[in-house]
Specification:
The protein has helices spanning 5-10, 20-31, 65-70, 86-99, 115-120, 128-140; strands at residues 12-16, 36-40, 56-59, 76-81, 104-108, 124-126. By secondary structure, it is α/β, with parallel strands linked by helices. It has one domain: 3-Layer(aba) Sandwich (Rossmann fold), CATH 3.40.50.720. A 6-stranded parallel beta sheet has the order 3-2-1-4-5-6, with helices on both faces. Helix 4 (86-99) links the parallel strand 4 and strand 5. The longest helix is centred in the middle third of the chain and has 14 residues, at 86-99. The radius of gyration is 16 Å and the shape is globular. The chain starts with a helix and ends in a 10-residue tail after the last helix. The structure holds adenosine monophosphate.
Length: 150
């Protein structure tokens, strides 16, 4: 499905990866009135979207330029890459920043050691391992040290 003219004029959030996290994000952003386009290479992945999801879905590999062009990435205000592969997320995030000058780019990162690569490119990261460690430490009452766990 091609983005609508409304989406073009108001900007939108582009999400790469309609897995558990991507679908949840797409649902919450769409429910809060944001324009959303979500890309996944597996068309079956869109089943995770809620019936109230009002955004656009596109099947394709988010690392391919023609897929990003079809999604009109250049008009996105935010790009969020949450596929299950760090390399894919790095590539999508770099393309969004470097080729399309997207203001806000966020990527999921399984390996916290790769974080410096993202930081170099001005990409914000979400690292489940680091977030989980912080939450578990909190439950255990471990005092915060300020050190990142890798
Ligand atoms: P999850 O691990 O549940 O967050 O799911 C990750 C999602 O990313 C799956 O639905 C994959 O099909 C999707 N995915 C993985 N690689 C790509 C890619 N290159 N382009 C688009 N979607 C992808």
């Amino acid at each position: 499905m091609k983005p609508s003219s409304n989406q073009k004029s108001h900007g939108f959030t582009l999400i790469a990866g309609c897995g558990r996290l991507g679908a949840n994000l797409a649902n919450t952003l769409s429910d809060s009135g944001e324009n959303v386009t979500i890309i996944d290479k597996n068309p079956g992945a869109f089943r995770k979207l809620s019936p109230s999801y009002g955004g656009i879905v596109m099947t394709g590999d988010a690392t391919e330029m023609n897929v990003l062009h079809n999604a009109e990435i250049e008009k996105a205000t935010t790009v969020i890459s949450v596929t299950n592969k760090d390399n894919t997320n790095i590539m999508v995030a770099q393309l969004a920043k470097e080729m399309f000058s997207i203001g806000q780019v966020i990527a999921r990162l399984y390996d916290p050691e790769c974080e410096c690569v993202y930081r170099e490119f001005g990409i914000d990261t979400i690292c489940p391992a680091v977030l989980s460690t912080k939450e578990i430490d909190k439950l255990l009452g471990v005092p915060e040290t300020g050190a990142e766990t890798t």
